[in-house]
Amino acid sequence: MTLPRVCQKELLQKLTELGIAYDKIEHPEVFTVEQALPHVAHLEGIFAKNLFLKDKKKQFYLFCAPHDCDVKLNDLSKLVKASGGLRFADESVLFEKLGLTQGSVTVFGLLNDTEHSVKLVLDDRFTNNTYTKIYFHPMVNTSSIGITPQGLMTFLKSTGHEPLKINLME
């Protein structure tokens, strides 16, 4: 059975319904943070790095942090108490769970995780007003949208995903 998937248009409608203001920037297709930065580095706020991961027991994690955050999977694994360490999950599972493809991983994919099988892990700087805006891909990697930390929390509440907040700076 194929589940209906939320696309960019439906995401933007959802943000509007929730009263979440956003800025949208169109750019060429990008597959990495490094490819995206020339198109978003001039914007107020921070561009998000998003990783779709799994542990040995096939628990899935969506990790979101500032793009310039140095992420060591071993350290992250200990912080989230992952069983047997963390590794990148296959693209087929990324599509199955979040309706996304490589290069377009985003917190907004949680709209497609109606079974709540993905644990969200957020760098706490995304929720403590360190940044005025956080930029994520809106289900595709040909644009980015910026929302406030308050908008992010409103969005997450609407999906039923309670983030595990971690501090990678310590």
From TrEMBL:
Alphabetical list of PANTHER family matching this protein: PROLYL-TRNA SYNTHETASE ASSOCIATED DOMAIN-CONTAINING PROTEIN 1-RELATED (PTHR31423:SF3), YBAK DOMAIN-CONTAINING PROTEIN (PTHR31423)
Molecular function via GO: aminoacyl-tRNA deacylase activity; aminoacyl-tRNA ligase activity
Gene3D superfamilies membership: YbaK/aminoacyl-tRNA synthetase-associated domain (3.90.960.10)
Name this protein carries in UniProt: PrdX deacylase domain-containing protein 1
Organism: Acanthosepion pharaonis
Family: Belongs to the PRORSD1 family.
InterPro entries: ProX/PRXD1 (IPR040285), YbaK/aa-tRNA-synt-asso_dom_sf (IPR036754), YbaK/aa-tRNA-synth-assoc-dom (IPR007214)
Keyword annotations from UniProtKB, A to Z: Aminoacyl-tRNA synthetase, Ligase
